[in-house]
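Archive entry. Fields below.
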Amino acid sequence: MGAIQNKLEGPVSEELALVQAAKRGDDSAFEELVRRYDRNVFRIAQHITQNREDAEDVVQEAFLKAYGNLAQFQEQSKFYTWLVRIAVNEALMKLRRRKPERTVSLDEDIKTEDDSLPREIADWSPNPEQQYTQAELREILSKTIQGLPPGFRTVFVLRDVEGLSTEETAAALELSVPAVKSRLLRARLQLRERLGKYFQRRESGNGKNGDIASGDGNQ
Amino acid sequence: MKCAEFLHELTNYLDGVLDDTTKVELENHLSWCHNCYVVCDTTKKTIEIYRDSQLYELPDDLRGRLRSAIMVKCQQQKKRGPQGV
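PREDICTED_STRUCTURE:
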């Protein structure tokens, strides 16, 4: 079992050339940046807001803000990381407006150390996603990630769906690297546990279920 | 390595950033601890399923409309000057 491969690593110098051209007033260069990242921004926004219309608004507002503030963009960091930071802030603002009764921030949601520890250890079927149609699977994944606190799902989406590095995620969310790692672990474990409901092996009685949080590897 | 330590290192392991010694210890733990093996394997699958899911893809027609709207608003903002943000 090896490490997960990251899928996103675009040519950074090309991005920088586009940013510099856009700063000089070349709108077609900015439009190229929109083309390059609009899908990512939409995905991130919908993961955070869980609402299609809000996600559409966030895409527009994030790019418009980036356009208006391009002069302030420091070229030491990646444009995409900077754009993601703007988009995440816009998305969180949408969420706050929609759920004013709850405080929505990246700092809430740390409860106890134990809330993510595995309780359900049953194995999954091989290729569990193939038990469902594409539409059913999307529904399951969407419902499952919706149940996570916004701070967890934001970290998960940036790291595991969009493929940002831990450091880029920390920069985009203005969190420390250890905070990103801790949230990522909990997000992954919580999603794993919740998906288990749908993906577990149907046969019963292998006697392997247990709680690794309380034991030291007794088989 | 105990199960709690395995959990602590799980994210670093899946991200491929563990030092060699810890990686060997962790893989040794996985070779005999079925529960941790299952947690590791299903966590990895969780990540892969989300990554490959094409959840929330931006449809082409909406994408075109959004891009046009963005560029029109950028033009308007440019005409108004920098205070318009």
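CURATOR_NOTE: The domain at 12-98 of chain A is CATH 1.10.1740.10 (Rna Polymerase Sigma Factor; Chain: A).
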